Amino acid sequence: MRNESGFGEIMDRVLIRQLKIDTVIGIYEWEKKIHQTLLIDLDMAWDNKPAADSDDYQYALCYETVSNRLTALITEKPIELIETIAEMIATCLMDEFDVPWLKVTVMKPGAVPNVAAVGVEIERGYC
Questions:
Q1: Of the four, 14, 33, 72, 119, which is 20 to 30 A from 56 by CA?
Q2: Among this protein's residues, is 108 annotated catalytic?
Q3: The domain at 13-125 falls in which architecture?
């Protein structure tokens, strides 16, 4: 993402930490009958300067709108893999919110005995 002069990268990011989503997730038959919690962390490249300079919400990336959209996306149908969820999130944010770069972390607490959580992390796009 270039700044207004066309030079240099904008390093601004909008962050969402531990978005908690209860959904049907897993490969085992017993998992397909229960809801489990996922924790989502997002780092999204976004030029925050227009919003900061104008103090105008229309130039901001709305955390609540993003959180609500991702919750609806992830809970609309059962999914087997957290890898699939990470890709779905990336596609949604880039296509629907025009986020040019992002890092998505999807954690599944309690999925493996003696482990706090397992997860995947992906990066997509460019700054």
A1: 72
A2: yes
A3: 2-Layer Sandwich (3.30)
